[in-house]
Request: fold
Amino acid sequence: MRVLLTGGTGFIGSHTAVVLLEGGHDVFICDNLCNSQVSTLDAIEAICGRRPVFFEKDIRDKAAMRSILADNGIEAVVHFAGLKAVGESCAKPLEYYDNNVAGTVSLLQAMQDAGCRSMIFSSSSTVYGTPQKLPLTEDHPVGGVTNPYGRTKLVIESILSDLCAADKNFCAVCLRYFNPIGAHASGLIGENPNGIPNNLLPYVARVAAGLLKEVNVFGNDYPTPDGTGVRDYIHVMDLARGHVLALEYALKHPGWEAINLGTGQGYSVLEIIAAFEKACGKKIAYRIAPRRAGDIAANWADPSKALKLLGWKAELGLEEMCASAWNFQQMLQKKSN
Ligand code: NAD
Ligand code: WQD
Reply:
């Protein structure tokens, strides 16, 4: 396959690029580098001996996207590009709607012009809002999202559904990720957010590395076994593999699908801290802090649709997730010394 990854130098995109290249596919990346570095391309090449073709472009640049798609005979787009910080989306909603929603519409128009009719879209379990029942199946009602970031995902899913209704040859697979963590086993690529991390795993990794003092556990009075929030953490390499299978599926099945990518198993914040302690062999300091606004108590996936349609299921467990995240954190430290 000749595949374009928008946002392909980012966390999930770079891991997917590796799996696609290793599978013999031709990978093209378009990224404006607003949340990633061009050096990721060197890391990808070091891992798999092949380098994606790179375009430093914004997905909102329709003319550029049109020529990237047409000139390179792109068969499908995996659309990772987007802004993803929940708190920032509340402060700057218009930036989020412009980048994520308007950017996707512009990209879809460029695809239409270039005759490319397959998209795998990075959606999120956030579209389910507060779960009415667990595990979450894809037919669980969507909506009730508490922030603009989550609403951009909902709106884009609907745009893709409308497009598939209008163009019977278009395929759109919305992959609803649960909580992606971990890194490639080489430690050369992983998740390294700018500033103080919002997400739990990179925060815990920096406490383990001595870069932050302690983990703030946001609430221990949720109706969960130990009172802390429960999430379905999924290894980024499992997630990456899911995209390759989704691409193969999309090219054979026109129409719109939403598919959960999760393990089906939830872990609490305290369980994550304990698992990371085991991976790094150190105590991780934490304190109980107030609940974070907009958080839900628990969510985890029913991943059976992914198994049925794609033949995909998560293979890597929490131990591998924490060990690979710690390995990546140590590689970062080595580089900065
Ligand atoms: P990331 O920030 O590491 O990667 C996104 C990439 O998109 C970055 O490299 C950034 O530079 C690029 N980008 C942003 N806006 C762009 C634009 N207008 N034009 C071109 N490039 C642009 O994030 P990630 O964690 O790899 O997430 C990838 C996708 O998955 C995002 O759409 C995100 O919303 C979604 N998602 C992520 C998670 C998660 O927890 N990481 C969970 C659910 C969904
Ligand atoms: C996980 C758990 C926190 C940080 C978010 C987005 C979602 C998706 C993934 C994508 C929760 C607790 C966290 C900390 C803590 N995003 N926590 N201390 O909130 O499930 O999902 O990221 O693009 O759309 O909403 O992930 O990693 O922030 O939190 O106690 O310092 O850890 O309360 O229970 P979340 P998270």
About this structure: The mean pLDDT is 97.
